[in-house]
């Protein structure tokens, strides 16, 4: 089954005549096709998939061997003119009323990156403790198979206790690149991060999250604040769905993050055990709560189809079975990641770039000879070296002026940061003690609004008894993570599991920067709920330093 994709919603079908007889085309037509390819690549943020041998009406007519060679030659010439490379993804013979064998070919056209604008996808890695998440990332990014005792994961750990226990407790980032021809670019050839960025047209940034239940708040923070494009749920073939697997699956679905599943450690199990784990996953995915359509990937053709369908249809969930020790089916996952398209097209990104600058602070460091460094994601606008911004809110609700001294993206220097991209910003000698996770750095013209009291429309996913006024929960909204108390439940005295309501919350420590419509997730022990922000009670800071309401009523934006 062939479905074409450029960006996410684009379809491009190349007619037989357009490609095969292009050699006789006029200069005007030549320029027109070149312009059309440029436009397709721009819409697909640097890549597009073409189908050769498909009519405009979708009829699969195919081309003969000679016609296909001529068509590919023409397409390659067009790609070279716009600075792109082509890679044949797959070929298939079609039954057409002809004595000569005819084929359809699907081709990936990817532009060689210029001005550091490689295509960047963020993939959050979820799964139960000891399911093989860090080991799989180590194998993908280092280019060497594991020895069966966890050697591949050692380079990913950030703390001594992680190395000693073999368990991730913090959020770490690993990069995997693909060049314009679709070849893997990683650390295997003793490359540095800078060299990987320079050689790659497409970059996959893996966000390695913790699997143990006691680090759940860290995992939720990684999912809400780093805005992953996709999530990769890793399930061990020998243990199946255990521990936090269901919880992580529920988090991805609650936050509406598209996900795919990797069943690891197939080398330790019999074929029957692997099949049992696959059936267990398929059964859960088909349940009414999930309503997903599982797609087991067993061939290159499946991997191409899965990558195209995963972004187009949120109900499709690819399932891979692989081993980080033997390398079985590892290439299928690489093919999938290479073709996986971005969820936003260039037009949506440009609209975000037209807005004022807003940078979420997710990490804070002190680097020798550099000073204070913050890491996070640029939600909107453009951030440049030397730009003056304000950061806040502080504990007393103020915003402080600062200057961006330098920018690094994927561990390499970058002069301009665009909306949707993650990076670290050096702030020079700015006092680190004034910063905390959950702050935002915004343009001074924005005049940011903060609040301590807000309302959200929520669904109570689980609570042992009844959810009432005065109950305290940990609220996650984007990069904001703080305890809040339930001030009021509109229209009801109490809530039970599965019920909906509009609830008024109050942060107990300090005000936060929130936006209407932001996804909200709250928890306390086994209590869990999701929703979105509907109102905020905006506050300002008076001359005496005290918080004063802009309005006695709740303000809707």
From TrEMBL:
Keywords: GTP-binding, Nucleotide-binding. PROSITE patterns: G_TR_2 (PS51722). CDD domains: GTPBP1_like, GTPBP_II, GTPBP_III. InterPro entries: EF-Tu_GTPase, GTPBP1-like, P-loop_NTPase, T_Tr_GTP-bd_dom, Transl_B-barrel_sf, Transl_elong_EF1A/Init_IF2_C. SUPFAM superfamilies: EF-Tu/eEF-1alpha/eIF2-gamma C-terminal domain, P-loop containing nucleoside triphosphate hydrolases, Translation proteins. Residues 118-346 form the Tr-type G domain. Belongs to the TRAFAC class translation factor GTPase superfamily. Classic translation factor GTPase family. EF-Tu/EF-1A subfamily. This is Tr-type G domain-containing protein. It comes from Phrynosoma platyrhinos.
